Amino acid sequence: MTSAWPYDDGVSPPAPMLPLRLADPAEGTGVLLPALVDTGADCTLVPAAVASRLRLPVVDRIVVAGLGGSARRAPVHAAVVQVGRLRTLARVVAFEEETIVGRDLLNRLIAVLDGPALRLSLRPAGAHRREPAPRPRLRRRPVRSR
């Protein structure tokens, strides 16, 4: 099943956005956040204040570098994340006020960015796979000499 959302045309150029549900893995309490889809981002970012309010457990720290080149250490939290029909336990980076869905989650989905239609579509990765048809077995025939 495919889920679809319009681009945010309040920015220039219009950008693919989707609702990201973020929840505490232990308690299940969560929030719904508007998130930018960024195929250039390695990881998913959530606002530091939201990660703190949900009391998401810190599992690591990484260095985050943006376009400006400046690097900062940021905490990595465990969270239950829902993007479209994908609901999974994931690592999210708490960073400033950003909410960005990065390739760590996008690579688990089939995403179609339809720029001319200003529409983002997502479907689970397994939805497009079909079992391959059985290949016919070739029998070797003996070569006859004349």
TL;DR of this structure?
7% of the residues lie in helices and 45% in strands.
Name of the CATH class of one domain: Mainly Beta
Per DSSP E runs of 2 or more residues, the count of β-strands stands at 10
Radius of gyration of CA atoms, rounded to a whole number:
21 Å
Count of alpha and pi helical runs: 2
Terminal CA distance reads 61 Å
Q: Which of globular, elongated, flat, extended, rod-shaped describes the shape?
A: globular
Class derived from helix and strand content: mainly beta
Mean pLDDT over the residues: 88
The CATH superfamily of one domain appears as: Acid Proteases
CATH architecture of one domain: Beta Barrel
Portion of residues in beta strands equals 35-45%
Q: What name does the CATH topology of one domain carry?
A: Cathepsin D, subunit A, domain 1
**In percent, how helical is the residue content?**
under 10%
Q: Please trace the helix and strand order, writing H or E for each element.
A: EEEEHEEEEHEE
Low-confidence stretches: none
Q: How would you sum up the major sheet?
A: 7 strands, mixed
